[in-house]
Amino acid sequence: MVKRGAPASADALHPVGVFGGTFDPIHVGHLRLAEEMAEAIGLDCVLFVPAGQPPHRGAPRTEARHRLEMTRRAIAGNPRFAADDCEIHRAEPSYTVDTLTALRGRLGQARPLWLLLGGDAFLGLPGWHEWQRLFALAHIAVAERPGAAVLESDALPESLRAEITARQVADGSAAGPAGSVLLRRMTPLTISATAIREALARGRSVRYLLPDAVLDYIKENRLYT
Ligand code: ATP
Questions:
Q1: Whether the model pTM is above 0.85
Q2: Residue 143: what are its φ and ψ, rounded to 5°?
Q3: Do 150 and 164 form a contact (C-beta atoms < 8 A)?
């Protein structure tokens, strides 16, 4: 059974990362984002939260129980990572604001929470349900790709630019439990779950794009064929 992300340390002020995604399947791009942010911010724990029914896109191709199990296998062996099944047990769409509210209830009001996002996901933030409430619930750490700086993007909405201007911090030592935005370049890995699904459907190799344990699970369960 997956434990509902108990942070590794009992210290109530150690920061916790929250990384949501469809994870259909989880791949090395996701894992490096979490690892690099955990190191940069000094996160005590990163909770990987597979989406149940993501509100911002079509239904995932793969059942939630498989996406959760692939996530669990991908992070096995990393004591700082945990899988959290809270969204996949929800009948209604998985709004991040609800997930963070529930996490606040579990972790307390004082603990710094960091929502981890890729730059592409962050640019779409103003389309999210009650997006401005997110800043009251967590800090946001954005993994930028080289050549795709968020502040230089034509796709950056003015409302989001204003939030960055008011909230941007230079590193992960932000004060308080929530409310900062950290933009940080990560190692560029042009890997997407879409490309992995397409390669698998064509019978092409996806080895080294995701952990072997995830690939074994995909084969055992004949996913993406
Ligand atoms: P799909 O191709 O099905 O859209 P995906 O590979 O983009 O999937 P998601 O589960 O949608 O994966 O993404 C979860 C989070 O991971 C998002 O914040 C996204 O920006 C980020 N992300 C996905 N792939 C990468 C990557 N290669 N490098 C950095 N961040 C990534």
A1: yes
A2: -90, 110
A3: yes
Nearest CA to ligand 1 atom 26: 29
3-state secondary structure of 145: strand
Length of the chain: 225
Task: Name the strands in the sheet holding 113-118, side by side, starting at the edge strand that comes first in the sequence.
Answer: 81-83, 45-50, 16-21, 113-118, 139-144, 181-185, 168-169
Rounded to the nearest angstrom, the distance between the alpha carbon of 118 and the centre of ligand 1 is 7
Cross-strand pairs, 46: 17, 81
**Which two tokens mark 72?**
């669990």
Pocket of ligand 1 (CB under 6 A): 21-24, 29-30, 33, 117-118, 120-121, 143, 189, 191-194
pLDDT digits (tens, 9 = 90+) for 15-25: 999 999 999 99
Strand partners, 17: 46, 114
Residue 197 CA to residue 68 CA, distance in Å, equals: 17
Residue 79 · residue 43 · CB < 8 Å: no
Q: Find, among 127, 149, 116, 155, the residue nearest to 38 by Cα.
A: 116
Distance between CA atoms of residues 64 and 204, nearest Å: 24
Residue 10 Cα, ligand 1 centroid: separation in angstroms? 30
Q: How confident is the model at residue 208 (pLDDT cuts 50, 70, 90)?
A: very high
Q: Residue 76 C-alpha to ligand 1 middle, in angstroms?
A: 20
Question: By alpha-carbon position, which residue is closest to atom 8 of ligand 1?
Answer: 193
